[in-house]
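Tokens as discussed.
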């Protein structure tokens, strides 16, 4: 279930930093000092990577999702083009 604006706003700091899962690798990281940072976890070439988008509330949940979508767009285009090359199932 996707994260809501209210859940993000009401997230309280703890002794250690923690994540609130949204979807497709996006999450706000809640720091012990109360700062909430939007991050996206993904894999590239078999290695885990991390993108940072900005701080909440300056960057709301809808804007963070838009940034996630924009960040994933090149990979989606690449995947859609992979099936069009030589040796694809549709050409046989």
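Sequence:
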């Amino acid at each position: 279930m996707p994260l809501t604006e209210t859940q993000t706003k009401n997230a309280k700091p703890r002794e250690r930093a923690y994540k609130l899962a949204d979807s497709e690798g996006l999450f706000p990281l809640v720091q012990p000092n109360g700062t909430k940072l939007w991050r996206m976890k993904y894999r590239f070439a078999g290695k885990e990577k991390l993108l940072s988008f900005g701080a909440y509330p300056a960057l709301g949940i809808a804007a963070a999702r838009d940034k996630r979508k924009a960040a994933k767009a090149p990979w989606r285009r690449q995947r859609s083009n992979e099936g069009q090359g030589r040796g694809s199932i549709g050409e046989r």
